[in-house]
Design brief:
Distance between the termini: 11 Å
CATH class: Mainly Alpha
CATH architecture: Orthogonal Bundle
Structural class: mainly alpha
CATH topology: Farnesyl Diphosphate Synthase
Family: Belongs to the FPP/GGPP synthase family.
Number of strands: 4
Pfam families: polyprenyl_synt
Protein name: Polyprenyl synthetase family protein
Order of helices and strands: HHHHHEEHEEHHHHHHHHHHHH
Helix content: over 70%
Number of domains: 1
InterPro entries: Isoprenoid_synthase_dom_sf (IPR008949), Polyprenyl_synt (IPR000092), Polyprenyl_synt_CS (IPR033749)
Strand order of the largest sheet: 1-2
Largest sheet: 2 strands, antiparallel
Organism: Allohahella marinimesophila
Shape: globular
């Protein structure tokens, strides 16, 4: 696993370091608390999967497309420094993602993320929401600096869909009747949409043709679905120290995810009623029984299989890219999405 991760980052190591530098640079604010909370959340040990996706796709397209090679020299200025546009886009994507995390933790009243206290737990809800708003607005400032209206349209549309997904999930808290189709709509909006937007925007910025843009958009969407499905598995089967939060948090918050939906589909009636009761009541009082039902129905195996199907679909969308280290890293990213334990 360690070798796979290092191999995935290797083709864009220099770009990734520049993106990290730009992320920290763009947290500057005249209000000290904004910088303090911003740095706390962006330095909290996240994988930076979404900006990594931008950089790998940009690099893979340079090996594939003459247009991408011509745009490779395009850059933009931040203060006295110049950055490749792909690094700017990676930073925008990370800021959008970080803003959603700050808001999510307030909505969910979460106290732990990535193994340490959430910003709202360490400071307060109001500060977390407002710093999240700052990161959203800073990301749009950077979009303007990039100067690509098509990219702006993709990302502006994505932020709307993500917000709708959050509301859709909120309206279904403690709803044991949530269907699998509605669940998939929620996770596509909440999670897969930003993967999709990152991949599509990277293709647009690199000058890829429309067919390639569509393939990479679908690659990002399928990868994001696989990633979220495994997150939902790990909520019931992960190691709390590795995943950085308590196992069973989703159920405790009244969130209905596919492991529960599938367990209810397979379980005998008396067990279905027990799961429905646990969903309605929230908390962790019935966690032991729910975990038993999930194990006995092999619900997690079903979800893992579905995640692998999405990852396979994502990998198939890479066929139009020329063979390169970056393309191989993107394929490895598909495998990592479904084999990870955190």
């Amino acid at each position: 696993m360690i070798n796979m991760v290092s191999d995935i980052f290797a083709p864009v190591e220099a770009d990734f370091e520049r993106a990290n530098a730009l992320i920290l640079n763009q947290l500057h604010s005249r209000v000290p608390l904004v910088e303090t909370i911003g740095k706390y959340i962006v330095e909290s040990g996240g994988k930076r999967m979404r900006p990594l996706l931008v950089l790998l796709i940009s690099r893979a397209l340079q090996s594939t497309s003459a247009a991408a090679r011509r745009t490779d020299s395009d850059d933009f200025g931040v203060g006295d420094e110049r950055f490749p546009q792909r690094v700017g886009l990676a930073t925008v994507i990370e800021f959008l993602h970080t803003a959603t995390l700050l808001h999510d933790d307030v909505v969910d009243d979460s106290g732990m993320r990535r193994g340490r206290a959430t910003a709202n737990a360490r400071w307060n809800n109001a500060s977390s929401v407002l710093v999240g708003d700052f990161l959203y607005s800073r990301s749009f400032e950077l979009m303007v600096t990039l100067g690509n209206l098509e990219v702006m349209a993709i990302l502006a549309g994505a932020t709307n869909v993500i917000a709708e997904g959050e509301v859709l999930q909120l309206t279904n808290v403690r709803n044991p009747n949530l269907s699998e189709a509605d669940y998939r709509r929620v996770i596509h909006a909440k999670t897969a949409m930003l993967f999709q937007a990152a991949a599509q925007a990277a293709a647009v910025l690199a000058g890829a043709d429309k067919a390639m843009q569509t393939e990479l958009r679908d690659f990002g969407s399928n990868l994001g679905m696989a990633f979220q499905l495994i997150d939902d598995v790990l909520d019931y089967a992960g190691d709390a120290d590795k995943i950085g939060k308590n196992v069973g948090d989703d159920l405790a918050e009244g969130k209905v995810t596919l492991p529960l939906i599938e367990a209810m589909r397979r379980a005998p009636p008396e067990d279905v009623q027990l799961v429905r009761k646990a969903i309605r009541s929230g908390g962790g009082e019935n966690m032991g029984e729910v975990m038993r039902i999930i194990r006995e129905t092999a619900a997690l195996d079903h979800v893992r299989t579905l995640a692998r199907n999405y990852a396979d679909s994502a990998e198939a969308r890479l066929e139009g890219l020329a063979d390169s280290e970056a393309r191989r890293a993107l394929r490895s990213l598909c495998h990592l999405a479904v084999s990870r334990d955190a």
